[in-house]
Design brief:
- The structure is a homodimer.
- By secondary structure, chain A is of the alpha/beta class.
- Chain A folds into 3 domains: 95 residues, Arc Repressor Mutant, subunit A, CATH 1.10.10.10; 246 residues, Aspartate Aminotransferase, domain 2; 110 residues, Aspartate Aminotransferase, domain 1, CATH 3.90.1150.
- The first copy, chain A, contains 18 helices and 14 strands.
- In chain A, the strands form 3 sheets. In chain A, strands 3-10-9-8-7-4-5-6 form an 8-stranded mixed sheet, sandwiched between helices. In chain A, strands 11-12-14-13 form a 4-stranded antiparallel sheet, with helices on one face.
- In chain A, helix 10 runs parallel beside helix 11 and helix 17 crosses helix 18.
- The N terminus of chain A is likely disordered.
- At the A-B interface, helix 2, helix 4, helix 6, helix 7 and helix 8 of A face helix 2, helix 4, helix 6, helix 7 and helix 8 of B.
Chain lengths: 493, 493
């Protein structure tokens, strides 16, 4: 293939304004090689000729040739000039001509068992909060400016060490703050060494599942319960045993008939039934775990907000057999986008957990952890909790009063001791799904309790959040519920 | 058990100053119950009597009794006053008397196969950077104040949506910035939909391993190579095939004899040998993957810093068969503590990846992602890269010149085209481990190439970072190396 034949093929596209000659020539030649206009073995024009033809400095052309040669597109042969390398597989040279859609026709890819079993968790509703958005704090009352100040101070004095990363278990000063907080406020038995900081409550369940679960292991979950945990355990290949929940929480007798080696529970404020597990049940559950050498995952996801009495101490604080893994998150106390949560493990699991976390993340995200540690140390966290507790108690009061006043005989809204949401039980004849759909048309956000059930659930109820929106919006929500329920009742008759 | 018998047992500890009477009484009674001083069934004193005896308002005592009753510690019986509940298992009532050390004697716990196989990655060196710290950028030159400004602006206008969380694949504006950057600067073929933001480069490997690997799967890795990937694949139960690396990167012929369905490579700047994979090898590797329906994990961990020629386009941009997963991180371009990295997957893996990420994290960390998106959009990222490229090129030049001048015949430091480190090859007779140990005594940080090898490695070399410290420190490092190498040579003779 002589120079002439190349010249007839090699028509380079014009150089766009603002593109440097070298960049343009490089791209043009590389494209010509890749899409086959310059075939393997083809000889390129002399640099001088190319420079003259396209009005480019000869040095630029030489540089581009060297670059392409160093990348393996071109090779210089003694006595025969510069040629496109002969070894490029033909098929790949046609790359850019292959329509992109052909990718879709590739043979089905084998993915892992985990990925096959993984079901997408639907994204959280990111639109503005309306009555009765659950599982979300009052984001508009979060002291974002104060947080920004604390963050700014930390960032301005961010040391190289902080920028470099940390222990896989997290930033030690934050682990110390968390341990002190849990000991004082949650009655947990907790040293900083046993605390790991993880990116959110879901990640806490994930890392513990990764630490413990082999495909085929039996894991018990509350029914109804938190679907995020259920889906995750399923993806790990666990055999799930749904255990009933009564008005004292998970039914321990149900566990006794299983070979569960892990049980996932929400004793402080059962998700979604909102009941609180009394001491006797807690002790019975601990006794079951101890006798079976099983582990309890105590998800303390929103019990910081308590409206009656003192917070019940965590089960973890009652545990003398090292069979409780305790977890909580800052998603409900600060904001979900922070993605910081903690998990407290028994002594013998600290080292395996550190190994697992070191492989997952190498080291922990540091800056946000440092900002949060500062925020807690300065007392802002405690103040924010106290302030929000008052706000939420008031919102709960408004909800309960309005519901009693307007929804009597149709929906019974439970009083709750703690948390960001409660449950409303529908009178016979209503179904949760109907009410949810009808309310949604009035921009009222509800979830049917049945969607948290793993088996058919005998009662019809609604998850009703009261923390995310103000009292006026709660009143609007109750008005909508009244309207919707009356209509549904009329239609039924 | 009458009241008298209780009174003789129930001596409550004095109330410490500053502790509210209710809190004190609650804790004192609960402790008395839990450590058995108040036995199951024991009747408590009348509230009036207790109030008088301890100088506490009667209402406070009533409140505490109600609290303890609601928690299941106490129960009121008609006609017989308030008693400690009879159902508490004896063993647990003795909880606080059990020595804590008994936990250690619990039967060995079964952990998952992953956790059993997981080996702790040693924490990164968090001390001040010295010559020749590798894998770390110049943290002292990071524009922390500028970052703080951008972060402050973002935090002050942080909307509720931002606080609430996001898509499991990450904050869309950041994914857009990353896609644009990769298309322009790395020659990748990339739309925002195929980009996922993950917490660091290690997490990128982890999530892909979770997406793809089943125990027993064959995974090929570079030998020598990045041990963090090796350990992770091992923990997933993969059968690892170490593939040799020559001066063009991984040897594709070695792969042909395996049944690998995934190969982990660092083509831009092989870790740790620092060679760059030329085009022909890239195409051969792609052809191998296509023909075997295998996947290539292209870890582009530090190729943004390039000192000669233009950056080689990513393999991912040459791939027309959808068999490349591309990953890079902001740990080297900004700072490791940021813990943000990206992974770009073929179309058919987007949905499975989203499902896996949604289960792992529910949704992504938002604020840092938003700050980074702002930082990139304002052009700060590009400016920082350009500035650092000049700084590092100069540091590399100083290293090469000083090494040539002072270490000739003992250590040959390779010129590199890209990255934050290079490799120094030791003359026959030296061993890497000896040099590392001797240099460490002079506060010079080196790693032996042999520690990255999975099989015995025939050459003795050192990983030499030149980016993290200034030219003066590099010169000091070379002085130390000269001293150490001369001494070792004398001793050998």
């Amino acid at each position: 293939m002589g120079r002439q034949s190349i010249d007839t093929v090699l028509v380079l596209p014009p150089r766009p304004k603002g593109v440097a000659p070298g960049r343009w020539l490089y791209d043009a030649l590389r494209s010509a090689i890749l899409d086959g206009r310059l075939r393997a073995g083809a000889r390129l024009p002399a640099t001088r000729a190319l420079a003259a033809e396209y009005g480019v400095a000869r040095g630029t052309v030489v540089g581009v040739f060297e670059q392409l040669a160093s990348e393996g597109y071109l090779e210089a042969r003694v006595g025969s000039g510069t040629r496109v390398r002969a070894v490029l597989p033909d098929r790949l040279l046609q790359a850019t001509r292959t329509p992109v859609t052909s990718r879709r026709e590739a043979p089905a890819r084998r993915i892992s068992g985990f990925a096959k079993r993984a079901q997408l968790m639907r994204p959280l509703n990111l639109g503005p909060a309306r009555a009765f958005r659950a599982n979300q704090p009052a984001l508009d009352l979060f002291p974002a400016r104060l947080w920004a100040q604390v963050a700014g101070r930390r960032l301005r004095r961010s040391s190289s060490e902080l920028l470099a990363g940390s222990d896989p278990l997290g930033f030690l000063p934050l682990r110390e703050q968390v341990a002190a907080y849990l000991t004082t406020s949650r009655g947990a038995s907790c040293t900083p060494e046993r605390v790991a900081i993880v990116p959110g409550g879901q990640a806490a369940i994930d890392v513990i599942a990764r630490l413990l679960i082999e495909p085929g292991d039996v894991v018990a979950v509350e029914n109804p319960g938190y679907i995020g945990a259920v889906r995750l355990f399923e993806a790990y290949g666990a055999r799930l045993v749904p255990a009933d929940v009564d008005d004292e929480g998970i039914v321990v007798d149900a566990l006794k008939r299983t070979r569960a080696r892990l049980v996932y529970v929400t004793p402080a404020h059962q998700f979604p039934l909102c009941v609180s597990m009394p001491l006797a049940r807690r002790l019975a559950l601990l006794e079951w775990a101890r006798s079976r050498n099983a582990l309890i995952f105590e998800d303390d996801y929103d019990s910081e907000y308590r409206y009656e009495g003192r917070p019940l101490p965590a089960m973890q604080g009652l545990d003398d057999a090292g069979c409780v893994i305790f977890s909580g998150s800052f998603s409900k106390t600060l904001f979900p986008g922070l993605r910081l949560a903690y998990v407290v493990v028994p002594d013998d699991l600290v080292d395996p957990l550190a190994a697992v976390l070191s492989l997952m993340n190498r080291h922990a995200q540091m800056l946000d952890q440092a900002v949060l540690a500062d925020f807690m140390e300065a007392g802002h966290f405690g103040r924010h909790l106290r302030r929000m507790r008052e706000v939420y108690a008031q919102r709960l009061g408004v909800l309960l009063a309005a519901a009693k006043d307007q929804l009597d005989g149709m929906l019974t809204v439970s009083d709750v001791e703690a948390g960001l949401q409660t449950v409303g039980w529908l009178a016979p004849g209503f179904t949760g799904g109907d009410v949810v759909a009808a309310a949604a048309r009035h921009d009222v956000q509800l979830l049917a309790i049945s969607r948290f059930a793993l088996t058919s659930y005998p009662r019809e109820g609604l998850q009703i959040g009261f923390a995310a929106v103000d009292e006026k919006e709660i009143r609007r929500g109750v008005d909508v519920l009244e309207l919707v329920l009356r209509r549904l009742r009329r239609r039924r008759r």
